[in-house]
Every structure is written in C-alpha cells, then in structure tokens.
Specification:
Strand content: 35-45%
Low-confidence stretches: none
CATH class: Alpha Beta
Structural class: alpha+beta
Helix content: 10-25%
Number of helices: 4
Radius of gyration: 16 Å
Order of helices and strands: EEEEEEHHEEEEEEHHEEE
Distance between the termini: 30 Å
Length: about 250
C-alpha cells in the first residue's frame, strides 16, 4: 500500500502540509528528491526505471502525489509520468483539466491522484472512469482503496482492503490538529506516525514494502512561496528524515 496524508488550509501561513509513505518492490531503483524539471522548476524524487515520480511540487506552489488504486486494470503508460506531466502546470485547475484529457488519450492502471495548490485541492480517483472530488479545508488521507472514509473492497484482496481502510481512518483521526498546534509540530507528529508500526502504514514484506517517506510543507511568507521538504530514503521506522535543500 501507499499512504498520503495532507492538511490543506489548516494552518494560517502553511496552506499545505503533506506526509506520505511510498511502498514499492524492493528492487525498483529510484533517485532522491532534487530538481526534477526546470520549466517550471519542480522538486521531486525520480523513478529510475520509468523516469516518472510519485510525489513533488513546483515553483507555482502546485503539489502532486499519487497512490496505486487496487483495481483490475492494466495500463500502457506509467502513472508516474502522469505526475510528472501535472508538475508542468501552474494550478490545480489546470492540472485537473489535463488529467481529464490524459485518461482519454492514454491507458493507465488505476490510481488515486492528489493535486493541490494554495487555493484548491482535489482528489482524482481512476478505475477506468475518472472521479474528481474537491477537498474542504482539513486533514485528508488517500490510500489504495480510496480516501477520507469512502473506500471499496478490492475483489482480489477484500480482507486486506478492509484492514487498510480501518488503518487509514485511524491515522486520519490521530493526525487531526491539536488545539494551537503549529504546522511544524504537525509535521513532526506525522513523520513519527509514518514510521510507527502501531499505525500500520510502514509495511515490510517479501520483496515489497515501504521504500521511502516524504514530509512537505508549502508556506507563504510575505506573499512569497517557501518550500520545506524532508525525505527518508528508506522505511521511516528506521530511517531518519533529512532536509532536502530547496532549489526553487
């Protein structure tokens, strides 16, 4: 599974804060976050095999992140390339319009895509048909079986799907902001939760598991975007988060 939690329009000067685990096959190579593209300038890790990415943001303050969606559907084009394409755009609305066209032009496996800027956040769920849900201010969670309490049972693994849904609801409840909590304090709590096995989102299996984790905060300081990114280049249960030097 993959897990993506984000707080949108919750903290006054930090409109978007993200905590995410990436689960992948152990042998699939990737590169840590850095400058992914120049125009517009974007920061993201890179999948070394397909060249795409699973999470990132650009100089316009647009964030994009993706998880698999457990449906029986094969794709011809990498979902990571879809994320990379979205990072070319200046707003959530423009990226959403692009995805609407993209799923008609190419065949993709199922996905859940989060696209967010300082003004709009949306979750796009695709299983052959595209569903777009605009988010209200608050804490949201996206996993392989859906988002924010709206989950499905995958036909091939219904029991696993039910467990993942319960885990997602629990983690979302735990990461509701405390009274007076700052964005930095929330980031610390979210990072701890990503690596705590009690919450069930740092997973280890036979040749598959949590390969990395990201913590991202996009802030506005005197009207100027400021980005902060911490990356764990391994399972967050045993790998420290390290600050990624901004190159925006």
């Amino acid at each position: 599974m993959c897990t993506l939690v984000f707080a949108w329009q919750v903290f006054d000067t930090t409109p978007l804060v993200v905590a995410a685990n990436r689960d992948e096959a152990d042998g699939r190579p990737s590169e840590p976050p850095g400058v992914y593209r120049q125009q517009p300038r974007a920061i993201a890790p890179r999948d070394s095999r397909a060249g795409g990415t699973w999470i990132g943001y650009n100089e316009h303050g647009l964030f994009v992140g993706i998880t698999n969606r457990w449906v029986d559907r094969e794709g011809d084009r990498s979902r990571g390339q879809l994320v990379a394409d979205c990072l070319e755009y200046a707003s959530t609305t423009a990226a959403v319009e692009f995805v609407t066209r993209a799923v008609e032009a190419d065949r993709y496996a199922g996905f859940n895509l989060v696209v967010a800027d300082l003004d709009r956040a949306a979750v796009l769920e695709f299983d052959g048909a595209l569903s777009i849900t605009d988010c209200d201010p608050g804490v949201h969670i996206v996993v392989n079986v859906g988002s924010d309490g709206s989950y499905f049972e995958p036909a091939a693994r219904p029991a696993v799907g039910r467990r993942q849904a319960a885990t997602a609801d629990r983690l979302r409840a735990v990461l509701q902001p405390d009274a007076g909590e700052s964005a930095s304090e929330w980031v610390d709590r979210a990072g701890d939760a990503l690596g705590t096995h009690e919450y069930g989102v740092c997973v280890h299996g036979d040749g598959f598991g949590t390969r990395s984790a990201s913590l991202i905060a996009l802030e506005t300081v005197d009207g100027t975007l400021r980005d902060r990114y911490w990356f764990a280049e391994g399972p967050p249960c045993r790998t420290p988060f390290r600050r990624v030097e901004s190159s925006l």
